[in-house]
Amino acid sequence: MRPRQTRPRLLQAMLDAFRLPDLRRRILLTFGILVVFRFVAHVPLPGVNPDALQQLFENMPLLGMLDMFSGGAMRNFSVAAMGVYPYITASIIMQLMVPVIPQLQAISQEGEAGQHKINRFTHWLTVPLAGLAGYGQLVLLQREGVVASAELLPTAAIVFAMIAGTIFLVWLGEIITEYGIGNGISIIIFAGIVAGLPEMIGSGFLAKEQFGGLVAYVLIALVTIVVIVIFTEAHRRIPVQYARTVFRSGRMYKQSGATHIPLRVNTAGMIPLIFAMSMVLFPGMVASYFANPTGADPNLANHIMNLFNPNAAVPMGLFYWGFYFLLTVGFAFFYTMVIFQQQDLSGTLQRQGGFVPGIRPGKQTANYLNHVISRITWAGALFLAGVAIIPFLAREITNVQVIQLSSMGLLIVVGVVLDTMKQMEAQLVMRRYEGFIK
Q1: Tens of pLDDT along 17-57?
Q2: How many folded domains does the chain comprise?
Q3: How many other β-carbons are positioned within 10 Å of the β-carbon of residue 115?
Q4: CA angle 200, 206, 212 (to 5 degrees)
Q5: Do 136 and 91 reside in the same domain of the chain?
Q6: Mean pLDDT lowest among 15-29, 51-65, 91-105
């Protein structure tokens, strides 16, 4: 028997993928679309003051979060300044509305056709959300002196261009999903985050920071990535048995089979972080409209801005990050329960003739599954909350101010890499190639 080659499985899988014409075409198509995305991200809108725009980003942390989803396009105020953020918002709204509105719930239960209808509603909802977000950004930039013109025609032209940029990026993402590798929307966001990493790391080494602090910062980032991988893949297996009656040759036979339901520890993904960050940044953003300018006597709005400033030093920063921690835990439980109730696992098991050993089908199974998901969600919620405050901890421990460690960015990058690996594995398994995931 010939000895098995010891070449790394990841490298072997990539080589196998490039040997297959259809997989090679999918991979090259994905890279080509990402090049188009990066080109669009550098097509600027007219009438922008770059210096004023840079100053605005330093004063408003919320813009930094939106800039992450746009892949740096907002910092350039390009036609893709909003990225796919309106589409993500529309998707979250639809996920929350489906279990609440009976008509949408009925549509979602129509199988693949119903899912196509829900996706169509999501696309329709993206357009007005993109228009509102684009107009809000433009008004903010005009108030801060970044965009000079406030006339109707130039304003409408800029808003429509931003809507078109968002829809174009969503279309590129769907092409990747259908003809490329992985989830296209996630890959678009992933590409934007990764594209900004070299500049951020280079600025950290050129800023004359202490070498020990930079090494500690990198170690914290690596440990965080390992923890994210562990909790992203962690799940609780619920044993399930199926009993069926089969008639053969005029006789009745009972067949049984066993499997399991994997309940993820982090069912909510990164959505609680988005909710929590939006809520914790909102008071400071509203207060900025009423605060006195620098040099004048501070009023209540100035104190609220300082209280909800993520860059504030200890002890003022403890309030912001502590509030962020608690909101993340709360939203993790809320979103997990919404998604879990929408799946209706107990009803699906009962319809398919499955049952959990020792648990009666129906209501008792539902109560048991709700109890299990509530317990494991504590681990997922505390994990997300811990990842949320990692930037604050890394800054205080290492005293590195230039490099900004983004918790949502790390979650997105790790999640997209794992998802893409699984997509590659599925494609290779279908062609009887050995992949790299056990």
Answers
A1: 777 788 888 888 988 998 998 888 888 887 777 777 777 77
A2: 2
A3: 13
A4: 90
A5: yes
A6: 51-65
